[in-house]
From TrEMBL:
The lineage of its organism: Bacteria, Bacillati, Actinomycetota, Actinomycetes, Mycobacteriales. NCBIfam families: F420_MSMEG_2256. InterPro entries: F420-G6PD/mer, Lucif-like_OxRdtase_MSMEG_2256, Luciferase-like_dom, Luciferase-like_sf. It comes from the Bacteria. Residues 15-311 form the Luciferase-like domain. It comes from Mycolicibacterium iranicum (Mycobacterium iranicum). Gene3D superfamilies: Luciferase-like domain. This is LLM class F420-dependent oxidoreductase. One of its GO terms (molecular function) is oxidoreductase activity, acting on paired donors, with incorporation or reduction of molecular oxygen.
Length: 346
């Protein structure tokens, strides 16, 4: 929940290092709760060091850093350092990526991604506990072994604790595991309110209950497609790029289950065919208004806050949203503040 009990409102921060200071300062000035980097074509951690240096309040997260391209020790170390430098503002978001990228792009091992991710998170905590409490490091798992930690390699203590660990999850098993061991779930943008209600949250809850935890122990974060504008013309124009983005995700076999829940499974087959042919514009045209409204919040600027709240209510704790460049800063600040404000009971 946000500072006033409402949604936490986050935004993406650019990864180009020279642009990060100004971008992070802007997001903090506009009142956002968090800013997140992504590991796409830049390192996800370096921008957060710059963002920490140029801000004082906003939380700083990776959404996501590829866990299996690294090992728990290296991630524990950079997480520890960024947590200290940001004075406790780091949100360490990890994701598995997929097998071809791990093996062919990162030249790392891939196997049993759910079990491996669980072990990765547990290993992080074992390492941090060793550094924090001086306990013997004795983590011996199926995938990772960390049993050596001499005093020379223990980082200096700091008062900010370890960062919260978020895990990106799409499938049921990763989502359930997240409920057991993670501090937060990063959902995929290619989700609908119905998918959250019928699949994601019940699955997450099973993991939470199995571990004897409470729902409040696991923060649910999700990016959200938002199509808005000051008039109908802007709405229509801004919808074009979102339709293409939805079509891109919908063409991916891994996300077919979301479509099938709504009876759109056959569309995935067609979009996958078009993607293999490089027909990206044609793909976007297949996302009709009904589908657009399921995957995105579509509302004029004067009612977009109510629409976002309605989409997130009882399901999402922190939402990553962006508004069109045509929206002036004062209006963005008002929108963010209104989203964060706890609604009064009727």
């Amino acid at each position: 929940m946000g500072a006033d009990g409402g949604l936490k409102v986050d935004a993406a921060v650019v990864s180009r290092l020279s642009h990060v200071p100004a971008a992070a300062e802007t997001l903090e000035r506009r009142g956002y709760d968090g800013c997140w980097t992504a590991e796409i074509n830049h390192d996800p951690f370096l921008p957060l060091a710059l963002a920490a240096e140029h801000t004082s309040r906003i939380q700083l997260g990776t959404s996501i850093a590829v866990a299996f391209a690294r090992n728990p020790m290296t991630v524990a170390q950079i997480g520890w350092d960024l947590q200290e430098y940001s004075e406790g503002r780091l949100l360490l978001g990890l994701g598995s990526q997929i097998k071809p990228h791990i093996e062919k792009r990162f030249s790392m091992s891939w196997s049993k991604p759910v079990a491996r991710m669980r072990e990765f998170v547990l290993a992080l905590h074992a390492i941090w506990e060793c550094w924090r409490d001086g306990t013997r490091l004795a983590f011996d798992g199926e995938f990772y072994t960390h049993t050596l930690m001499t005093p020379m390699f223990v980082p200096q203590p700091h008062p900010h604790g370890h960062p919260k660990v978020f895990v990106a999850a799409v499938g049921d098993r990763m989502t359930e595991m997240c409920g057991e061991v993670a501090d937060g779930l990063i959902a995929h943008a290619f989700s609908t309110q119905r998918y959250f209600r019928d699949v994601t949250i019940p699955t997450l809850t099973r993991g939470i209950e199995r571990a004897g935890r409470q729902r409040r122990d696991v923060e649910v974060a999700s990016p959200l497609f938002v199509v808005t504008g000051r008039d109908e013309a802007e709405l229509t124009q801004n919808a074009v790029a979102t339709r293409k983005q939805i079509a891109f995700y919908a063409s991916t076999p891994a996300y077919r289950g979301v479509l099938e829940l709504h009876g759109w499974g056959d569309l995935q087959t067609e979009l996958h065919r078009l993607s293999r042919e490089g027909q990206w514009d044609a793909m976007g045209s297949l996302i009709d208004d009904t589908m657009l409204a399921e995957f995105a919040v579509v509302a004029p600027l004067d009612s977009v806050v109510r629409a976002i709240r309605g989409r997130c209510d009882g399901l999402i704790d922190r939402v990553l949203v962006g508004f069109p460049p045509s929206v002036d800063e004062a209006t963005v600040m008002d929108l963010v503040s209104e989203l964060q404000r706890e609604e009064s009971s009727p």
